[in-house]
Amino acid sequence: MTIRRPGPGDYAVYYKRYVDLVPDGDILETLRAQGASTQALLATVPAAREEYRYKPTKWSLRQVVGHVLDVERAFSNRCHWIARGVTLDLPAFEQDEWARLSNAADRPLAELTAEWNALRQDIVLMFAGFDRIAWERMGRASGNGIRALSFPWIIAGHELYHVELLRRNYLPATQT
Question: Residue 52 domain-assigned?
């Protein structure tokens, strides 16, 4: 089953910046391929670079990966709830507070990427099990209406955004 690309009214305007980064096509295949590509990139990061911050006030490379993990887990959970018909307004989360409370900065990158790989596989399997009716369900998250089918596109775009940030600000030019 093809999951249609979300359009205006399917998600809050804030997420357009992520959805727009994702190429057209089978979004589940995009998530699979993207996950493998990002895993390969992160496997090349030298241990000495894992705690690197391009500015003192910015997250370390490990914390960026931890943030992406948090977002994918939160967004896939929101998607699951909405696909199952929950109409309550699902809670927001404050990314800087979550990063502060996370121990990602203290975990080896290999451990974080292994968790991300397992999570991504789980998400793709869960998404593959939804039917067309589930994908079209509307719910609420952070005070905004959102259609379940928006989440895979937002997750993929969020990853693309952060991988580009990693390439530009965290990884040496010879590595990327």
Answer: yes
Residue that the structure tokens 């699951």 belong to: 80
Alpha-carbon span 33 to 107, nearest angstrom: 25
Whether 100 maps to a domain, the answer reads yes
Pairwise CA distance, residues 113 & 62, whole Å? 9
Residue found by looking up tokens 């994702």 in the block: 22
CA proximity to 3, closest of 139, 141, 120, 130:
130
Tokens of 112: 């974080």
User: What is the rounded CA–CA span in Å between residue 89 and residue 54?
Assistant: 36
Q: What is the CATH number of the domain that holds 89?
A: 1.20.120.450
Contact between 148 and 137 (Cβ < 8 Å): yes
In the block, residue with structure tokens 């955004």:
161
Query: Distance between CA 115 and CA 136 in Å, rounded?
Result: 29
What single-letter amino acid sits at 137? Answer: R
Chain segment 130-164, per-residue pLDDT in tens? 999 999 999 999 999 999 999 999 999 999 999 99
